[in-house]
Structures are given as structure tokens and as C-alpha cells.
Amino acid sequence: MLTLYSYPELFGVADNNGYGLKVYAFLRFAGVSFMHKHLFDASAAPRGQLPYIMDDGETIGDSETIIAHAIAKYRLTIDAGLSAAERRTNHLVTRMLDDLYWVMSYSRWKDERYYPAFRDAFMAQHKQIDAAGLDKAKAYNAQRYHFQGIGRYTPEQAYARGLADLQVLAEIVPAEGFVHGEGPTSIDAGVYGFIANIYFLPIPTPIKAFVDTHENLVTHCETIHAAVGGA
Length: 231
Fold this sequence. Notes:
four-stranded mixed β-sheet; Glutathione S-transferase Yfyf (Class Pi), Chain A, domain 2; 9 helices; 2 domains; alpha+beta; 4 strands
């Protein structure tokens, strides 16, 4: 059986990282049976990144590579009906979510207005992790943000990037149904992975405020959340 390894659950979602939650939702949508194991330490993962899967002895990392593997191996038809234009939209939105990831992560680990609340909520749910451990992760993430570039932005500049990405999503996600019609496709899993990790965060960041005030994003998120379940 396929096993998904990803970061721990938090705030009612099955993975507190958008990429792992994307894969989780995709596998649920596509009807693939899998085991889900949570890790705090990604050092042993491919390229030191989560999520990854083990499937019949094969180790596969990167969320898009995992999805492509599952589609090919299990002959999944979830995206079979997409047009060429819809596939291009999926590609562009997927790359935009890569940008949104950094803003979402920044809001948790870098912005001192919100990090203490995030730290305390994480420890409340995962009591094996203490403040020293999270502060160590915070310092590691600060290095990542610096080299990626977002760590050199002011909070206002960083959030401007995320809000621009969210505005595009708000214009793409319909008021009812899914991005490409009545049934979900892989891009809905991707959007959910990131929006859920903003929407269910009980901390009033600027990006959460945006999501909260856009009913179509909330409806899309809650619909998928109810369909795929929690951890």
C-alpha cells in the first residue's frame, strides 16, 4: 500500500504544510488507498523535504511528482477531461501557489506579531515539541527566507505578494463547484492545501483576513475539507 509521509496535522487539517495537504486531498479525491504517517523531522526525506511517498518500495518526493506518479501507476482519470487551456491554467496556478507558500510560511514563523500564537498553538496540539524546538525551527526558517528572498522584505511587502496571489485565486475559484466544473480535479486539491492552511489558522494574519472575506474561497475550502476529512 502507498504510504504518505508528511508534516503533522494542525488546526483540524491533515497536514499543516500546503504541499502535504495537497497530496493528501488529491489521493482522497482520486480514491487511492494509502496510509498517512506524520513526521516532524524532514532530514531523512528526499532532498530533505516533505511530503514524500513510499509505494511498492519506491520512494518519491515532491508533491507534483507524487501526483504524476499516482496518476500514471493507478490509471487515475481525475484530470482526464481537462482541456489544453485548463491544463495550462493548472500549471500557472500551481506555480503561483509556490509563491503563496512563502508568504503563508512567513506569516507563521517570521512575523513576530503572529509567531508566538502559532508556536503556542503548535505546542498545545503536539506536546512532544517544546518552545526550544520550535525556536530552532524558526531560526532555520529565517535562513531559508533570507536566501529565498522573502526574508528581506518588510511584512507589508511580503503580504502584498500573498494578497496578489490570493486575489487571482479569488477570481478563478467559482462561487459553487470546483475550478473546472462540477467535479474536483488535481488543482482543487492544490488550492485547498494552501487555502485550508490559511483559513483554519485561528490567528488574524492579513492573508487570513482576505480569505475570510471571500465567500467563494471559504466555500471551496470547506467543501473539500468535508469531503477529504481530517488527519
